Amino acid sequence: MVKVIIDCREHDLIDLMKNIEFSVKQLDIGDIIITDNQDKELIIIERKTVNDLDASIKDGRYEEQSYRLSGYENVHNHNIIYLIEGNNDEKKIIYSAMFSIMYYKGFSLIQTKSISETVNVLTNMVEKMGKEETKIGYYLGGENTKEYSSLIKKEKSENITKENIDEIMLSQIPGVSINVANTIIKKYGSLSNMIKKGENEIKLEEITFVNKKGKSQKISKTACKNIREYLLIK
Q1: For residue 41, which of 52, 49, 25, 30 has the smallest C-alpha distance?
Q2: Residue spans per domain, the chain
């Protein structure tokens, strides 16, 4: 199950959240955090009314907050959501900020008309994540594999070569992205070499790759476990 944590200063939201379980604490970053059952942060939500956003732009808090969120390494920017609540009333500065949030900063954006709609959006989001607990999020390598597989099926067979076949096959394992598969193949030379070395010689947990933020990252536990189960354990 997923867990929901709401910042203790979100009084109105706390009063209206009736259909899902959540805990309340003072958060250092974001207003709502969704985690897995091992407390790994999956989604951070920064909730702002249109008036809050307008005021924070004018007093400089918006830039400071977005800078801190962008520098938060536990969650990819795509999974940091700005939830903008209320009617815009044609304020150009708000439209500009919303564009900047998505295009320049790489955050996701949801707009609701009222706090009641915000509650419905959050409730549905949590319920969907709870029903699909085993589904791996895009930035953990889940959808990468699915989408790339679909592409390969649509493309002509000559686009599959001796040079990329190992990477393509390895990326079919759940949780293994194209980026991770490419890194592993580069390290061991080929899928065949990797299998020959066997479980005892392969140190998947020590392999690092450069993620989409340009930072070094270790292969996820899920990917390591699945590679062993699919390829290395006899």
Answers
A1: 30
A2: 3-133, 139-232
User: Options 3.40.50.10130, 2.60.120.200, 3.40.120.10, 1.10.10.10; which CATH number does 3-133 get?
Assistant: 3.40.50.10130
Q: What is the pLDDT of residue 89?
A: 72
> How far is it, in rounded angstroms, from Cα 32 to Cα 30?
6
Q: Give the integer Cα–Cα distance in Å for 177 and 126.
A: 25
Confidence (pLDDT) at 158 = 55
Give the tens place of pLDDT for each residue, 139-190.
Answer: 555 545 444 545 554 445 556 778 888 888 888 888 888 888 889 999 989 9
Percent of the chain with pLDDT over 70: 88
Q: Which amino acid is at 123?
A: T
CATH 1.10.150 fits 139-232, yes or no: yes
Give 136's DSSP letter: P
pLDDT < 70 stretches in the chain: 90, 136-159, 212, 233-234
174 token code pair: 């759940």
Cα(179)–Cα(4) distance, integer angstroms: 30
Distance CA 138, CA 146 (A): 10
Strand partners, 208: 218
- Total residues found in the chain within this entry: 234
Asked if residue 32 lies in contact with residue 67, where contact means CB atoms within 8 angstroms, the answer is no
**C-alpha Rg value of the chain to the nearest Å:** 21
What is the distance between the alpha carbons of residues 9 and 16, in angstroms, rounded to a whole number? 14
The Cα diameter of the chain in Å comes to 65
